[in-house]
Amino acid sequence: MLLYIHIPFCDVKCPYCAFSSFVDKLDLQQNYTTALIKQFKYDVQKHNIKEFKTIFIGGGTPSQLDIKYLEQIFNTISPYIKSVEEITIEANPNSSSKQWLQDVKDLGVTRVSFGTQSFHPEKLKFLGRKHSRDDGINALTNASLVGIKNISSDLIYECDIDNEALLKEDIELALSLNVNHISAYSLTIEKNTPFYKTPEKRKDNTNLAKFVIDKISQKLPMYEISNFGTHKCKHNLGYWRYEDYLGVGNSAVGCINNTRIYQTKGLNEYIKDPIKSKQEILNTQDINLEKIFLGFRSVIGVDINILSPKQQKRANILVDENKLYFQDNIFYNKDFLLADEISLYVGQ
Ligand SMILES: C[S@@+](CC[C@H](N)C(=O)[O-])C[C@H]1O[C@@H](n2cnc3c(N)ncnc32)[C@H](O)[C@@H]1O
Ligand code: SF4
User: Which family does it belong to (predicted)?
Assistant: First the structure.
């Protein structure tokens, strides 16, 4: 069982971001933490959960939450993480001081994922980020100084401002700062965000996407369409293997025994009743298709045993065309950029 914990606080709302986060509700930190703990206790009992394999604390901005609330959360989950393999926390470069990094390490965090996005001042401005180039450099350096072994840096590309020289510098600088993982996301124009009104902020550019992939892959192996690392994020590998996960916090999503569980999105509503959730029982066809998409987007691949005879036939056609390869009963994708097309073809 995997655990996702959502922290919905940020110091600014970035104009491209559609994640559930609030910039003016920091006074609700204690109430939110209390509600989240209530949901956690209720759900571990309900689903008879004894142990979590991996934890991912995401957001929003977990480094925006006062450390005393993170301590309360860790005190609550500690009986369930005796043999945990990895605890990741997301952080923004401007709110993750050296002391904060030391504190989260002491709490048991083993991996920090920084929302660096770029080191380039003009691009940071373009993305509406509050942090500076130096904040990015200092955060990654400090993580390594306090002894955090697994450090990831996020990069957003296919922005109107991007070019090869800019992206090359961003990637090389991140790699020079001891990161062993990069998540490189193509800018998505999300509904209900300021960027939705200016879609020209995104510049579709397959050549630039290939450039980013090639450049990062020279140092960090690609293991999913947006992820590269000598250390692969165990929590995400769990998602892609379709393992069960519990999601706690407002807007968190879980999936247990083929039932998807959605927590309330609104912050006040969640605080009022954190136990309330919506459930969706997934049918066999949904599960089959999702496993195919997740498998072909990553190194997990797709087990022949989940495919119908017709799907197996189509997968074998792609093996003949050299797009997939087959090993130990698993079909693997050779080019993650073609993942969606391949999945639609095999999964139909
Ligand atoms: C859930 S966010 C939280 C990270 C952290 N709050 C931060 O911004 O530094 C995780 C990552 O998603 C990526 N992201 C968010 N919105 C995106 C979008 N519209 N397009 C591409 N990547 C996006 C960013 O790289 C971000 O670092
Ligand atoms: S990208 Fe990160 S900091 Fe910006 S609004 Fe989204 S969660 Fe908050």
Answer: Belongs to the anaerobic coproporphyrinogen-III oxidase family. HemW subfamily.
